[in-house]
Amino acid sequence: MTQAADLCRGSLTGHGTEIADLRHLLWSSIDNDTSRDLDQIEWAEQLRDGRMRVRVAVADVDGTVHQNTALDAHAESETTSVYTGVTVFPMLPVELSEGMTSLNENEDRAALITEFCVDPNGVVSDGSVYRALVRNRAQLTYNAVGAWLAGGAEAPEKVQQNAELADQLKLQDEAARHMVGSRYQHGALDLETIETRPVMVHEEAVSLARQLKNHATSLIEEFMVAANGVMARTLDAARIASIRRVVRVPKRWDRIVQIAAELGVTLPDTPDSKALNDFLRMRRKADPVRFADLSLTIIKLMGPGEYVMVRPDEDSPGHFGLAVQDYTHSTAPNRRFADVVTQRLLKAHLTGAPTPYSAERLADIAARCTRMEDNERHVEREMAKRIAAVVLHKRIGQHFSAIVTGISHAGTFVRALEPHVEGMLVQGGRGFDVGDKLQVRLVNTNPERGFIDFAAV
């Protein structure tokens, strides 16, 4: 082992059957304002050689939800939590997902630690995974931390009261910025998505608020991508079949090429994530106002991700959008069954126990997780439409700028840009393709069915 690797790993006792006690570290979580199922906490330190060591602790859900129990069967049947914007339908009972297995503030919890080092160029190295006891010292939120890290707001109260925590978050932010820069250089897609959440007053949706990416969301995303990569490579090195999260090369690459050509850029005839990201980054600078529209178009044309079983001697299809080859879901076991399965594979490896799943069983689980995630997206999209239909009902007759998001046998679908809501083009919908921009008039809403109908103008 190199001196640098020794320096990064430090003196750890959490490998094999031993469990490290890392409760003394200043762990913190960053999540949505309303999140109660806390899966992940983070900690970082500066090393003498200029690198940073990052530790990501993930709740040990398998320690409570044992394989082949009624809870396990329920989780496998559900496979994922569903967030409807008003109500959460959790994969696990809330007594677990928001209690015993959640990394709640000031509570001791068992966790799986994924550790890696980041150099000033964003290169991730020396990954390892082990078990530990942890304690979340500060539950924080994306909006508050993100605005502070960007210099646009005061620090959250917990950060103001703890200078060490402020330094810790700034160090994590620095590591994440190095990492995202490196991934973009290798072709990770610099996309900007705009999501909305309902603003509730007396249990009634009165408006829609944007949820934008910021320094804090980027920080967590980078640590998540790196941790999932370390986990995948650890299982590969142990020659254990696993479930991977993949996004294959876009089936409609020809349409992406056409859109780029309309903006004066020639993309290769075959899918190339580096060339696509160079185009995206150029467009972000050239037209930041409409960049979210372009991002939405690219996302729609890329298609959804899926879960697949990958044997250790096989090449993974990889994740086109993240520009990573080794990627398994492991950082959200309270709300994704695939992550619980990954925990069991890893823990069996660490303790020398037999692998708990055959490759064929993993393939079946992966297929079900994909089907259920498709259903989840459908439910969440339908609920978003119902909420939007309630909010927009009073605006029937108004005009909106919009973008075409889908073409199917059912018709042409568009998304209004402000507020960001999707509906069907019921009048004047011929001759459009995904990515086309147009003006529409809201002609009808049906909250009970989630219908939002537009007419081209």
What can you see in these coordinates?
With 457 residues, this protein is an alpha+beta fold. It folds into 3 domains: 3-247 and 305-357, no CATH class; 253-302, no CATH class; 386-456, Nucleic acid-binding proteins (OB fold (Dihydrolipoamide Acetyltransferase, E2P), Beta Barrel). It is 36% helix and 26% strand. The protein contains 12 helices and 17 strands. The protein has helices spanning 3-9, 70-78, 94-100, 142-149, 157-160, 163-185, 215-237, 253-262, 273-286, 291-302, 337-351, 359-392, and strands spanning 20-21, 27-31, 40-46, 52-59, 82-83, 88-89, 108-118, 124-141, 195-201, 204-211, 242-246, 306-310, 399-408, 411-417, 420-427, 437-446, 451-456. The strands form 5 sheets. Strands 1, 2, 3, 4, 7 and 8 form a 6-stranded mixed β-sheet that branches. Strand 14 and strand 15 form a beta hairpin. Helix 6 crosses helix 7. The chain is globular. The N and C termini lie far apart (67 Å). The model is unreliable at 1-15 (pLDDT under 50).
Number of separate structural domains: 3
The biggest beta sheet, please? 6 strands, mixed
Mean pLDDT: 90
Instruction: Give the class from helix and strand content and strand pairing.
Output: alpha+beta
- Give the overall silhouette: globular
N-to-C order of helices and strands: HEEEEHEEHEEHHHEEHEHHHEHHEEEEE
